[in-house]
Amino acid sequence: MKLLVTGGLGFIGSNFIRLMLHERDDCRIVNVDALRYGSNPDNLSSFIGNSRYAFMNGDIADAKFMAGLIKDVDAVVSFAAETHVDRSIANPESFLHSNVGGVFSLLEALRHHNSSARFVQVSTDEVYGDIMDGSFTEKSTLQPSSPYSASKAAGDVFVQAYARTYGLHAMITRCTNNYGPYQFPEKLIPKTILRARSGLKIPIYGTGQNVRDWIYVIDHCRAVEQVLMKGRKGEIYNISASEEKSNLQVVGTILQMLGKSEDQIEFVEDRPGHDARYSLDSTKIRNELGWRPQENFADGIRRTVNWYLQNVEWWKPLMDDRLLSPAPWKLNW
Ligand SMILES: NC(=O)c1ccc[n+]([C@@H]2O[C@H](COP(=O)([O-])OP(=O)(O)OC[C@H]3O[C@@H](n4cnc5c(N)ncnc54)[C@H](O)[C@@H]3O)[C@@H](O)[C@H]2O)c1
Predict the structure, then answer these.
(1) Taking 80 as the threshold, does the pLDDT of residue 323 lie above it?
(2) I want to staple 248 with a disulfide (CB 3.0 to 4.6 A). Which of 175, 208, 232, 236 is the partner?
(3) For residue 219, which of 280, 126, 297, 284 has the smallest C-alpha distance?
(4) What is the mean pLDDT of residues 17-23?
(5) How far is CA 132 from CA 213, 221, 236, in A?
(6) Does ligand 1 come within 6 angstroms of the Cβ of 88?
(7) Domain 186-212+244-277+296-330 adopts which CATH fold?
(8) In what order do the strands lie in the sheet with 118-124?
(9) pLDDT, the chain, mean
(10) What are phi and psi of 80, to 5 degrees?
(11) Which overall architecture, per CATH, does domain 2-178+215-239 show?
(12) How far is the CA of 262 from the centre of ligand 1 (A)?
């Protein structure tokens, strides 16, 4: 199987490529990434020279470039996106470029040059907005709150329209918050680990009661693999491990694991439009495709903390002053 993966130098895409190359001997991968801030070539440096892996520096919104690549692949899995909510509040335009224009150009390339290829658009629970009680199903209304989630929702509806109008074998996955190795240090969990370890204050928005449903990144990657292999045309699959925690609980767990005091927590001005709670019902992927998460939060977070402690040479070059800011959405990125 020849697979085109986009955004494969980022957090989830690089974990996905590593998993596929380790576990599927039949799989060859071309990875297209525009080397935006969230990317890191070190994530996959161990595969340089591997005959089953090739990297191409390119923008998914470049229609001509993508058309040339898409022609002779069996499937496309697209992780490429601008992903940080704070950055989308400070500077929304690049989100429109990658998350809407990029998806559109991939769909056009598929329509004109490889309409039988399978296509998985990797999306997010944030497109549904927040929910106080219960959980969103795949049929729930899209009510995005931030420029990031609005751009992802717009990309998703284009995918649905192309599956229906042009018959593309396109599918969408919507996953909850991921954590694990290789996550850029501006996101909550790695940021907390690295700041706690250095004795710095840990900024928490508002009162810290915002709830996220956490999943270990490899469980997400295995779910995407199942959708790629067995998912039905035009379908959406929610992915969640049902591990809901408030931000305060997550930070508290990490501080405890590192033997640090909760005095390191500093409550800071809330992010505008901050979603209160995310929760997904993932019955469909469990029943239809037989997927189940393998990792619980207690083990996964221990594994993740240990990975960051043992891989200083990976994250050290990525730290800069902006990552230490208590209110990143106020910065001019
Ligand atoms: N991180 C999460 O918790 C989470 C949860 C659910 C869904 N998702 C989705 O999963 C995908 C991957 O997320 P991530 O956390 O790995 O993000 P990331 O920011 O770590 O990686 C995104 C990658 O996409 C690349 N990219 C951005 N714009 C591009 C463009 N125009 N052309 C080519 N490459 C481009 C970047 O260079 C980067 O390597 C995203 O689509 C995101 O919406 C993430």
Answers:
(1) no
(2) 208
(3) 297
(4) 98
(5) 13, 28, 22
(6) no
(7) UDP-galactose 4-epimerase; domain 1 (3.90.25)
(8) 53-57, 28-33, 2-6, 75-78, 118-124, 169-175, 236-239
(9) 94
(10) -60, 125
(11) 3-Layer(aba) Sandwich (3.40)
(12) 31
Reading the block at residue 299, the tokens are: 């083990």
Does residue 332 register a pLDDT over 80?
no
CA 168 – CA 171 distance, rounded (Å): 9
**pTM (predicted TM-score):** 0.96
φ, ψ of residue 105 in degrees (nearest 5): -70, -30
Taking CA atoms only, the protein residue closest to ligand 1 atom 19 is 38
Which residues have CB under 8 Å from 165's CB, separation 6+? none
Q: What confidence tens digit (pLDDT) does each residue in 126-157 have?
A: 999 999 999 999 999 999 999 999 999 999 99
229-268 residue pLDDT tens: 999 999 999 999 999 999 999 999 999 999 999 999 999 9
For 104, 157, 194, the CA distances from 249, given in Å and listed in that order, are 39, 34, 17
Residue extents of the structural domains in the chain: 2-178+215-239, 186-212+244-277+296-330
The pLDDT value recorded for residue 192 is 95
Active site (annotated) includes residue 162:
no
